[in-house]
Amino acid sequence: MSSRVLTVPNMISLVRLALVPVFAVLIVVGEDGWALLVLAVSGASDWLDGVLARRLNQVTRLGQILDPFADRLFIFVTLIGLAWREVVPLWLVLAIVARDVLLALTVPVLARLGYGTLEVTLVGKVATFALLYAFPLLLLAAVPGWLGAVAHVVGWAFTWWGVGLYWLAGLQYVAQVRRLAAAA
Predict the structure, then answer these.
(1) Which Gene3D superfamilies match (predicted)?
(2) Contact between 17 and 68 (Cβ < 8 Å)
(3) pTM of the model
(4) Are 144 and 89 in contact (CB under 8 A)?
(5) What is the largest CA-CA distance in the chain?
(6) How far apart are the first and last CA of the chain?
(7) How far apart are CA 91 and CA 164, in angstroms?
């Protein structure tokens, strides 16, 4: 694993981070078309940076921290924006934030044991994928007609799968921290 900072995948993650406030402003001012485009670009860039990191042999420690951080921040800001616009209910925000709070509680344990962040699991990647694709669909569901109806159904399907897998991945991370603590 490289300690390089300036890599193509890291730059893509930084662009995704820069899009977070752009999306927040767009959703607040009601520019749904542009907000939808920013969400779609964010979701696609999340996939792209991982693929490029592996193909270009540019997997870095920074990338392993930056990519999940960008994902969580985008998910959080998107949830807050969609809840503020009453596109998603408050319970969804609480369910996702509660999982991240649970994982934040493991950070001091990992630090005390001399570990950094844990590697993202396949379940965690799939959960993030599902959520990052659910949100644009839920925003698109506000469009009247068949497109909105289809987006509503598919968006909520992605949401339910995403939340379930997000919690499953979270519980896997907690179990991994418990194993590391028991081994120490």
Answers:
(1) 1.20.120.1760
(2) no
(3) 0.80
(4) no
(5) 58
(6) 25
(7) 14
CB-CB contact of 120 with 49 (8 Å): no
Q: How far apart, in whole angstroms, are the C-alpha atoms of residue 42 and residue 174?
A: 27
What's the CA gap between 156 and 60, in Å, rounded?
34
pLDDT in tens, 103-118: 999 999 999 998 877 8
Owner of token pair 């998603």: 88
Contact 162, 127 (CB under 8 A): yes
How does pLDDT run across 19-76, given as a tens digit for each residue? 999 999 999 898 988 998 998 888 788 888 888 888 988 888 888 888 888 888 888 8
State phi, psi for 60 to the nearest 5 degrees: -125, 160
